[in-house]
Amino acid sequence: MSKMKLVVxxxxxxxxxxxxxxxxxxxxLWEGYDINEVATATAWRRNPALVQxxxxxxxxxxxxxxxNAAHVALAELENDFDVSIVTQNIDDLHERAGSTKVxxxxxxxxxxxxxxNESLVYPVEGDIKMGDRAEDGAQLRPHIVWFEEPVPMMExxxxxxxxxxxxxxxxxxxxxxxxAGLVNYxxxxxPKFVVDKKLPYLSPVQNIVAIEKPATEGMKEVIPHLRKYLx
Length: 231
Ligand code: APR
Known about the structure:
Elements: E1 5-10, E2 29-30, E3 33-34, H1 35-38, H2 41-46, H3 48-64, H4 69-76, E4 82-87, H5 93-97, E5 102-104, E6 107-114, E7 121-123, E8 140-144, H6 154-162, E9 166-170, E10 192-196, E11 208-212, H7 215-227
Helix pairs in contact: 4-7
């Protein structure tokens, strides 16, 4: 008998308790950088060295961070559910916590790619420097989806949402599209849950259970709600 499909949309809030800054809590200045100068396709064209420096700094932070109890709780849910995580996060904390099906809508900071060919992807050992080249001779860049760039994994995420039996949102402000629109692909009758320290605006989406708590506490509270559906 196949397990119930639990689809989880996560954002920066689930990694906050691992010490990784969220975007909107850092009032637009992210580690001291203006997002428009480091996280857009225009920024890369204008000043690629600054963009490399920004992601090299964040990559060191990700390497030092540890998964927190919320990441672990999601990984443990795989014992009872067929869990698919759709994350906006570029860190690898879900994977390190043990989650086996993680889809990164906005890319992965521990990977890099040719700036000319997005299928040439490599693991990042240390930093990426200007002058580091892919096998096609093009400059290597972070394997991250910047603002102004398409989100190729959205189609796959939408299909997962459409087939969910249960849908959980953890730690996202739901302000960045298309990711924020994922909940609209979840069928009306599917039970939805949201855990967030400060609940994001959700249109009167039917039958949603909202838990306004930090992710590590909120996960403890939401798990019994999910388990109620176990046959
Ligand atoms: N526990 C739970 N939720 C938290 C916690 C916490 N400890 N701390 C913060 N939050 C919540 C905030 O209330 C907010 O709703 O996490 C959310 C963080 O929102 P954002 O900073 O906007 O992060 P996110 O929604 O992931 O941003 C989406 O925007 O900058 C782009 O590409 C980037 O993937 C990112 C996207």
